[in-house]
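Please decode residue identities from the backbone states below.
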């Protein structure tokens, strides 16, 4: 694809969410009957109950695809983001933060309806994160909110699996995928969560066999999607179904699978995991950035691994330092 004909290197589509992050102990999870290391959708009442019981928290813009776009922008590529907020205080925070990160926000805030989405992110001492999300305005992303030209002229479309939970947004993401494919652009997708894979298993198998070119997920998500009992079998299963499959394996690194080739990528060591929130999002950011620069797959994986290692040493899912400088210094690119 010719970058000169592109409005953005990557456009992401997902739930526009403000994260409310606090460090809690295991007892907190038990008290609220929460499944550790998962993402659960909650109503306003449940979100309020969790919030009122949380320790002092950090409020920061989040959303899986939005985090990935911020990571790609930090690496130096051009990005746009499709996600709905309300014109309320949290909505203003979200738009400010994503544009300050160098990402163009491509959907006008709603003036009526549900409030901006928020996620209570509970980080336990081992660095695991448990998310409880009220989707709010993000669930009202309609097909008419899609800027057809922006999607059709961007090299990559990146879609988060979380957005599949609402019928309205599912239809919107299907439209974005069809626009990208008709324009001969690449579609990338992240599996997001094992519970998402379970909920949408049949449809996602169809996506893998259809419009998806680049697929991201961790070991558990790939095992759930494939129905295999071992990651080795899952690798064989996905090989050839998509152009590129990236399987993240936490401290064991990642595996990049293409038809006829499997590449093992080592994890970059970190002194202490502060918060694993965003590790997968930033891995995808690094890998996609590498693809926009037409680097080989191993280099793409190393950039992804480095970006993920950087974000887990801090609280929050977006880079607080220039990833472009870190990658340039570490990888000599």
């Amino acid at each position: 694809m010719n970058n000169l004909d592109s409005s953005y290197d990557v456009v992401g589509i997902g739930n526009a969410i403000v994260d409310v992050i606090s460090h809690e102990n295991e007892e907190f999870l038990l008290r609220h009957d929460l499944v550790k290391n998962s993402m659960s959708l909650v109503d306003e009442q449940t979100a309020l109950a969790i919030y009122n019981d949380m320790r002092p928290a950090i409020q920061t813009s989040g959303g899986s695809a939005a985090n990935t776009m911020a990571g790609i922008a930090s690496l130096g590529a051009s990005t746009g983001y499709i996600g709905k907020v309300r014109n309320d205080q949290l909505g203003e925070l979200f738009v400010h933060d994503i544009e300050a990160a160098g990402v163009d926000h491509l959907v006008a805030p709603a003036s009526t309806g549900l409030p901006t989405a928020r996620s209570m992110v509970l980080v336990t001492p081992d660095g695991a994160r448990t998310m409880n999300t009220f989707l709010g305005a993000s669930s009202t992303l309609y097909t008419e909110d899609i800027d057809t030209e922006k999607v059709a002229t961007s090299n990559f479309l990146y879609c988060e699996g979380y957005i599949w939970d609402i019928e309205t947004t599912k239809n919107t993401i299907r439209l974005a995928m069809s626009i990208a494919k008709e324009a001969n652009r690449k579609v990338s997708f992240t599996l997001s969560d094992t519970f998402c894979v379970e909920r949408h298993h049949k449809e996602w198998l169809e996506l893998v066999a259809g419009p998806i070119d680049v697929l991201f997920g961790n070991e558990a998500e790939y095992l759930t999607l494939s129905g295999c009992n071992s990651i080795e079998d899952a690798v064989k299963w996905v090989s050839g179904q998509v152009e590129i499959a990236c399987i993240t394996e936490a401290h064991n690194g990642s595996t990049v699978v293409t038809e006829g080739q499997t590449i093992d990528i080592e994890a970059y060591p970190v002194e202490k995991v502060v918060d694993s929130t965003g590790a997968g999002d930033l891995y995808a950011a690094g890998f996609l950035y590498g693809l926009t620069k037409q680097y080989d797959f191993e280099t793409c994986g190393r950039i992804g691994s480095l970006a993920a290692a950087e974000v887990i040493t801090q609280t929050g899912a977006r880079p607080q330092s220039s990833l472009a400088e870190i990658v340039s210094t570490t990888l000599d690119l």
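Observation: The chain has a mean pLDDT of 93.
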